[in-house]
Structures
1.
Amino acid sequence: MVHRPELHITAETGVLDAPAGLLHDGQDWHVFLQFRPKLSDAARWGHQVSSDAYGWEECDDVLAPQGAETQLRAGSVVARGDVVDLYYTSISAEGACIKVASIEDLPATCEEVSNEASQLSAVVGGHHTAVSDQAGVVNFRSPCVVTDHESGWIMLAVAGKTPSLHILESSDGLDWRYAGPLEFNGETGVHGEIVAPRVIRLRDQVDGQIYDILLITVEINGVDRSGYLVGQLNGTTFEVTHGFERIDYGHDFTRPRTATANLDHTHLFGLMNGIGRLDDPSTHKSLAEEGWANCLSLPRKVTLQGGRLFQTPAAGLVSAIEQADNAALWVGTLEVPQGEEVRIELVDSIGHTAAVLTHRGDLLELDRGNDAAIAPLSAPDTLTIIVDGSTVEVFADGGQVAMASRVYFNGSIEEFVVTASDGATIERRSEKFSRDARLSPWEGPVR
């Protein structure tokens, strides 16, 4: 399969709709997925595990529709002591509600995996309704559960026919009390409907203060824009310190999910699909030719610095690329004054330029032939490009800028063709291809 990435998470077959939850148990990474084994199937939850966040193994599915349920959607995964709780959105003819199931032995979900597709794990149980219609609010969905907030257990969820955000509270994660709608104090800079909310807490590495980070996806004219707000969540009011910032400027990144933050950093994944819930997977080249659609981004380590999130690939990327069959990495240190540019063409197996990345000093442009994604730059010095199957991910400004896009190559990435204008300089450059390390240091302008 030429389109399927090796280091990114995909469904073995069918359609990956969204990341459902992320957990690190101290040894392994566990990612739970909302997916459909076939295009016509009801959505359910899959489960994959990795020791290094790059080589992923399929486990048995953990959730599937039961009784009157027509489908299951994404939610949140939380450790409660040795028990792992799966909060999920249950959809039936009556509407949506939030249910919870429990895994008492997480490693057991990966020990004996069935050869049959869509087999449910026998160690998942305790299904019950956590939040249903109350206080005049209906159709609770997309829960994010946080266990380490100052007020104890909180749940941030979407509700209503028109999406709105709401807060619930609990002393134990089992019994939930409705607290009220989420309100904002301060300028958010958000325009559009907010979906798929997440909230985490991080310590700013500049001022040492602890902030709440609200990750949101905004739907605008059928296109998803994921970003974040920085501030303090006090009860049901979010005091905004820094307004909306894009979390990714590429064509295809939405609905991020994070592992539990340790205040200094967290890790996140996003769905590499810029349209989100309005997308038609039947139009995907990967589904038509290889039987799968959509993937998650690479895992990103996230820190807060000066009110902005910095994202870098999780540790182990270089060795993972060395062990892959169809991946490549380009890293450069650049000096690009205003009005100058560095152009990097991503050339595939038949000599076709599949995408072009252009660094213009204050802007970074990723053009895949029919449209260009543009990101602002503030400290134009470092640039990292990762190609894996039909994915391209870019990190710049030391992690202040990230761009994720799906790009279909003919075969695989074969070459990075780099040119620079007279006033631009590539001070250092290296590149690495799967099972073939090629280092190419440069001094002075590259033309």
2.
Amino acid sequence: MSINGFDILWDEVDDYVADIQSIRSIDQLTFSKPVTFFCGENGSGKSTLLEALAILNGLNPEGGTRNYNFSTYDSYSDLHNHMRLWRSRKPDWMYFLRAESFYNVATKEMDYVDALHPSKEYHEKSHGQSFFSLMMDQVSRNGLYLLDEPEAALSCQNQLALLYLIQSCVKQNCQFIIATHSPILLGFPGAQILSFDDGKVEEVNYKSTSSYQTMKLFLDRYDYFVEDIKENEI
């Protein structure tokens, strides 16, 4: 793996991130598998920590490679300034995929083209097609990939396809750190799953994640939910 973990030097932090309980509970964190998932409710701190890791690795906060240098709106914390990476080796390639700012990255990609690097024309594809195409275009041996809610644009079938792509990359010494709500992606075999719920970060098994439990409850009791929704129309 490229990254084995990190420390946070809390004595130096003077930022809103100190009020995010799950992140505040971390003094140090170890990545034990080549695929690590951050899971938990909205606002629990998953994307904030992933963003800090991206910036700490020299990646653009809005997404892209280390060659991307632009800003649409600076809203990120300075947490990265107070973290120390435990790096075992330098990756040959890195990419930060951020669902919420993908449009900006796809637009900026057209500004960076030249004769040797033609545009991939992500805007000419559907949202889901462009997401998956980008992953296919960017992955390479010995890479580090930080993905923030990649399921946002992917169908269930393409989420499954992404699992196979990740497995293929892991066999080529790649590391993935992924923030997700998807019960499909969280099902990647042998992954490290870190829950950000209940104001702390702790390692959990797949079937104890809220994403899995909520989806299973809905599928098992679909008829009940349909009737309950009908009776409680807004």
3.
Amino acid sequence: MSIEENLGKVKKIIPDGVTLVAVSKTKPNEAILEAYNAGHRIFGENKVQEMTQKWEELPKDIEWHMIGHVQRNKVKYMAEYVSLIHGVDSFRLLKEIDKQAEKYNRVIPCLLQMHIAEEQTKFGLDKAELEEIIVSEDFKNLKNIKIVGVMGMATYTQDQSQIRKEFAFLKTIFDFLRENLSNITVLSMGMSGDFDIAIQEGSTMVRIGSSIFGARNYL
């Protein structure tokens, strides 16, 4: 099947109100353009340099989402254009995004990444760290970032009940954030293998790559 057909198939499954981020990491511009020409505009990358190169070369109405782990020294390369940063896992990173956004007179939307998986390899905040950030004066002084929600990745497992439990927990964090901050609308959870469970548990944004573009190219 073509990328256009795959995209159409995925969009039929995803309910209204759930945003699809087409994960284009490692994929060539031609593949992205095929999805773009089929009407899709939101793409997710996990490496800042690769995303920046694609931003420079591809149509300017594309919304670029940074979905990978972000190093603070790389923020400056995407501050001019990034539409949403999914993986904010520390206050220091938030501060850096704020500083770089100010240079472009932008307010950059961000998601706080929560650690919900049992795997130590995943990044993210725990609930205590999240609470500490949102009540701090330093956080309130940041003028060039806007927290719009949370993101999390479930454990990589075949055990659907565990995946469901982790997504349900993230939904409680999302609800907690909604009670304490304004502008909270995004619950980013679910990828190609588990997005159906994520949607059942309240996800408003899914990140899907291989179901659209085929198997990932490992560079």
4.
Amino acid sequence: MSLPPIVASLTRHKLTALLLMLQVGFTCAIVCNVAFMIVDRVQQLRQPSGVAENELVLIDSTDLDENAQPLVRHDADLAALRAISGVKSAAAVDAMPFNHRDWSNGIALVQDGPAPATATAFNGTPGELATLGLHLIEGRDFLPDEYVPLGSAHDWNGIDRVPVTIVTRALANKLFPGQDALGKAIYPDEKPVRIVGVVDHLRRPQAHESADNDDATLFPMLPDANDVTYVLRTDPQDRERVLKQATDVLNHLHANRILRHAQTFEQLRADFFHRSRTMIALLVAAALGLLVVTALGIAGLASFWVQQRRRSIGIRRAVGATRRDILRYFQWENFLIVSIGVALGTVLAYGLNMLLMLHDEQPRLPLLYLAIGALALWLLGQLAVLGPALRAASVPPVVATRSG
């Protein structure tokens, strides 16, 4: 198919062709970025937490007694919770994946040096690793004498007293690429802390960039605030019963407290990603709607041009053009329009991606999405123009010439 006749025909309809090219360009730019955002959010939904998700139940407890001794209260609560039938283990923690309680600090490799990573600090009572179901891939758990003494201040004062830490594989690889992290020292504050263990995964309580979501440390510091989360591990079929019994037990032990968010870990995860799932649905609907509008625009314009060109189509048929020649003409014409629109859309896509990177911490748009977007629009254009092109190809030479 020769392009000059097609280009000449489009120059006689400059405005309509330009508008369609712009529509294709904007569609390409938006759909490519939306597709990238959808994939990124779906990957976040599937990101492992590192814990035994289908075996955990959680209860947040807030002690209203200002004179209470939190550590003593936690010991009594945990003893009663472990006595519940079906409870394999229990621990008191200050943070969990997806619960938004994110205490993060920079991790340096030398004192007062730059921090190549920022990690969440998880604190809990002995048995935290076993209760959460964390997979220890190297090293060991904390020893009893490594926990910060009960009379010591925790938080930032306590972090300078902990002798050892357990880190995630992601953080170990980031701090010591290509090396074994065991035995090495890190500086979460002013004093060195030795790494004694590495766990496979431990998702941070809040959403971060994908590369940072697994950067976490565990410290042998006991939660010493009036707010604490009790985590119980049980068989999946016993979770609802254990959760109800645990709530009753805690209320019976001490009524002057508030119990909140009594739920399974799977419910916690579902609530955390509720907005993401809603956003994915809206983005999918918006992308599909935009593609449908673009397809309708292509089909509408092609139908208009077929109606306008009936006489010229008939003349071409009369001088020997086949149905296939007419069909190919409209397909090539559409391919040219869409290709120019895609070229424009590529520039717009990267411009939009830069704005999203600046204001929404969106990662850089990979070239693969532009290739897929271009292929999708070319296919959409060919499907949209197929109906009008077939109608044009079916115009009989005699009828067309007589209509002139």
